[in-house]
Amino acid sequence: MHVALHILEFWALGFVSLAVTLMLLNIFWDLIGQDLCLKTLGKEAFIAGIASLVEAMGLWLIISFVPSAVQALFIPALIVAIIYKISHLEDWSHYEIVCLLFFQLVVSLIGLGLFAGHLVMAITTAIIFTVVLTIIAVFMRSFPD
What we know:
Blueprint: H1 3-31, H2 41-65, H3 74-87, H4 94-116, H5 119-141
Helix pairs in contact: 1-2, 1-4, 2-3, 3-4, 4-5
């Protein structure tokens, strides 16, 4: 397959995972009684587009040239964290960035599990993720405002 098609596929998958991640993160932030302070839909889509392009390029480079260096995927994740930190400089602390990366990791794992036919792994990951988020939400809601 042509290189551009690979990058385009990775870019689309990265964009979808970031969009789902932001949606879930916004819902979770609402559940714990906080405001995520997202920008307008167009601005967030632009930021997600740039960040997912960085992820796509990084993933393609690693898969194409050094397939055994999966641990190098932290570099595109770090760049995505920097992009989101800079674009939400006034609104987000380091908690939002860490949650964004963690949520995207879990969303990607669930998506890959479904795509690869590992339904039990995907469902187990989703259940564990939901239970952990529920515990965190209950804990955070127990604090007085």
